[in-house]
Each structure stands twice: as C-alpha cells, then as structure tokens.
Predict the structure.
Amino acid sequence: MTTRRVKDLAELPRDIPPARDLWPAIAEAIRADLAMKAVPDSRRRVGWWPAVGLAASVALVAVGVFIGKNFKQDQDQALAAIHTAAPDNDAGMIKASLRQAEYEKQRDQLWTEVQAKLNTMPPAEREKVGASLATLKKSIKDIEDALGRDPANALLQELLVNSSQEEMRVLTTVRDSGRQEL
Amino acid sequence: MRESGIRSLWALCALGALPLACAANEGSVDRKVNADPKGEVLISNVSGTIDVRGWDRNEIQVTGQLDEDVERVDVETSGGRTVIKVILPRGGHDGGDAMLEVQVPSGSSVEVSAVSADVSSKGVTGTQRLKSVSGEITAEVSGDDSEVRSVSGDITVHGNGKPGSLRVSSVSGSLDLTNGAGKLDVVTVSGDARVHMGDSSEINARTTSGEFELHARLLKDARVSVEGVSGDLTLDLGNSAGLALEIESFSGDISGCLADGKVEQVSKYGPGTRLNSRTGDGSARVRAKTLSGDIEICDR
C-alpha cells in the first residue's frame, strides 16, 4: 500500500463507494415500511421490538450498575464497558440476564433494608426522605417508559444507567445513615 | 433498669460517695487536650449541635451542655488522632442532646458524624468530612479533598476561593455553595442546589428532581458535566478562552443567551432538543443532559 500526502481538497475523490452493497438492506426496509403502511391503523401493532429494546436496555443497566458498583469506574468508562458488553448473541444475553437478575435481587434487598431504616426515622424526616426515594424510583420508571418508546436513544440509555447507579448509591447512603463510624 | 441506675447514682451523689460521677453528670463538658497542629480530629454526636472552630493553639478544647440522657463525652487522643464521642446509654439512640463546641488547631483534618445534630464549622483549613443524617450542615471549607454529606438536612458551604476538591451530596436537603474553586462534585435527589464557583477546573453535578443552578468561571480545559432527570438546570458560565457545548434534553426546552447557540430538534418525528455549539477555542467542555427538565445556559 502506498501513501501520498494530499495538498488540496480537489485532489480527494468526489465519491467513496461503500465497502459492501447497501441496497438490498435499504430495499428490504422500504418494503417493510410500505407493508406496515398498508395495514389499517386498527390492526397495526406496535410490535415486539420496543419490548426487546427495553429488555436490552435494562440488561445494559444491569451490567452498568455492576460495573459502576464493583469497579468504581467513572461514568464514561462504565458506559464504554457497557457498550462493549452489550449482548449481541445468546451467550451474551444469558450473561446479561444473570447480571440483571443479581442486580434486581440486590436492589430489592436494599429497598427492604431502607424501608426498615425509614421506619426508625422521625415522621417528618421519614416523609421527606421517603418522598425523595419515591421521586428517584419514579424517575427511573419515566426513563424506562421513554426507552420503551425509543429503545435506541443514547441519551435515555445514559440517563437510565446513571439513574440506576444513583439509586443504588442513595439506597446505600440511606441504609447506612446514622451508623456511628467512630 | 436505666432509671434505677440513675436513681442509684443520685443517691451516691447525695451521700458524697461518688464526686467524679456527679461532676460528669452535671450536664456539661469541659475538656482540653494537647494536639498535633495538623492532626486528625474525629467527632461524633447523635443529637444536638456540633460547632467546630479552628484556632491557632496546639490544643483541642471541648466544651458544651449535655442533656440528662447523655451518659458522657469521651475525649481520647493518641498519635496525632483525637476522638471525641458523645456516649448515650445503651439503646438510647433517640434522645440525648449534646451541644458541643470543639476548638481545634486550624490545620487539623476534621471528620464529623452526626444523626440529627446540626453541624457547623469555621476556621478549619485542613480536610473536612462532615456528615449528618437530618441535621443542617453549615461549613467554611478550604481544605483539599473535603466532603459534606447529608440525607435530609440542608447544606450550606462557603469556600475560600482557592482551588481544591470538594464533594457535596444530599438526598432531600438543599445545597447552597458559595466561593468554591477547583474541582466540585454535587449530587442531590430532590433537593435544590445553588452553586457559585470561582475559577473551576472540573464540575460534575447530578440531580433527579431538584433544580440545579450553577454560576462558574471556567478555566481553560475545564470540564463540566451536569445531569438531571426532571429538574431544571441553569448554567451561567464564564470563560475567556471558549466553550464547547453539548447540551441535550429528551423532552425539556433549551434556552439561554449564547451568541452562537442554535437549538435544534434531535428528531424530525420525536421529542428532544439539542445544542452543540462552540465559542472561542472551545477548550472548556460543557455537557448538560436531562430527561424532561429545562436547560438554560449563558456564557456571559
């Protein structure tokens, strides 16, 4: 392979052919789109892909939370690791599911412990902290709902990962609050 | 059991048989110990107040009033480390106010742990770690690598304008930080946060539903990352070199007073707005993202 230094923009080729023929995939997408439009509105279904997308996103969160929790990487590194670890085959999906199950188990356990902690707090404080935790929970639900409608949205995925990590951090903080460390 | 113990104690006091115990049970503390000028001071108190004051003596003085439910205040010092701990009777975690004033060498590192006690700190130049569950925290912080945390208590921090590293977090309490500089991490869930920073190299902030307001002067190559879910974000950033902005909201609005800022729709069909802009050499990078909160940004 030879290299040559380009001195002027005009020297660059006007067209760069793609590495492979993209037309078959484009044609297939157009056909699917036309077929979808041909179906009456009442019979049109949202389809299964948002659910799969959401499931994949939740799996990403599970991986993200564990990366964040266990390795304490910063957010950018965690996100990079999540994208690297994104399940693109059955084995990857199974591993992600296991991590997700473990994450959900730990999260549920934390919520139980936090509830017990809230019960020991004075009423005003319990109400204030409880409301914040409910807000946190609702925010995650809102992001998940939005992801259900737009599963590929990178902003939503990032917010979900960060909010889920935040949930674990806050739950741990509340559970451990007031422990005499000295 | 505890009541009978107290009765016995008073009986002994009345008989003059236990003078030291009676002195300790009079409801006050006044202890003074020698201390390392840059030593470590750890203070814990469940309820009441903790006022930490830095002074120019190599001594630690602990004074204060104790509720009758407080058993005693331990002050132990060893190898540059002093531990001040309010002791409640076994199982007595709900009551027992102790109003402590602790004077420490100004260069000390201070760590305070409280439950409902209010915490205040002034004149300490070493690292501070101040934690309270529901008590308010008011602190002058100048030491590097300092941290202020609460669950439901409000936090007020005043920096000294010199670069340092500070972490402030609260779940439902509000945050008010003034005269900070250097590196800052702020986290709240539902509490509002208002931050005024001088020369800043790195700011990371996250809020769920609280409103976040940041006024900062960014240094060249500074990094700012602010994230919210439903809370509104207000960023007022000054930078003489220039900013590279990456602002995005899924369903909130983006507005402000940027000379070159043009907000665009993320998608032709769905919600979302984005602002990617660059001023000057763009050396200071600013990222702000929310789900449904509005973002307002100015660079003047």
